[in-house]
């Protein structure tokens, strides 16, 4: 996994936590008699709905990108099997050398 994927995964996880916290806060203030709190609650509920939708879209986009990458890799390996075997052997050899030096 590259650094961008890790950062995206962390951002999505953080967003899930924020969405959960906002939902809890909205439930706790739902019965407030204060008009300002109710108005803020309503705005937050609307924004939370938009944030949830965007979060789901981002997750779906990441999953689709992963599927595309897997399909591309699979196609390449089927079209160039000996190149793929050679690359895998080379990477295995390099990893073996690096690990044996430690």
TrEMBL record:
The keyword Transmembrane applies. It is a single-pass membrane protein. Its main location: membrane. Residues 9-59, 73-102 form the DUF883 domain. One of its GO terms (cellular component) is plasma membrane. GO terms for molecular function: ribosome binding. It comes from the Bacteria. Keywords: Cell inner membrane, Cell membrane, Membrane, Transmembrane, Transmembrane helix. Pfam families: DUF883, DUF883_C. The chain crosses the membrane at residues 81-99. The keyword Transmembrane helix applies. It is found in: Cell inner membrane. Belongs to the ElaB/YgaM/YqjD family. This is ElaB/YqjD/DUF883 family membrane-anchored ribosome-binding protein. It comes from Quisquiliibacterium transsilvanicum. The lineage of its organism: Bacteria, Pseudomonadati, Pseudomonadota, Betaproteobacteria, Burkholderiales.
């Amino acid at each position: 996994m590259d650094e961008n994927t890790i950062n995206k995964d962390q951002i999505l996880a953080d967003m899930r936590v924020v969405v959960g916290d906002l939902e809890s806060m909205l439930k706790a203030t739902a019965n407030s008699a204060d008009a300002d709190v109710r108005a803020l609650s309503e705005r937050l509920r609307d924004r939370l709905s938009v944030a949830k939708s965007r979060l789901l879209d981002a997750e779906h986009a990441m999953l689709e990108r992963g599927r595309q990458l897997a399909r591309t890799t699979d196609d390449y390996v089927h079209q160039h099997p000996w190149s793929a075997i050679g690359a895998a052997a080379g990477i295995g050899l390099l990893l073996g050398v690096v690990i044996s030096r430690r």
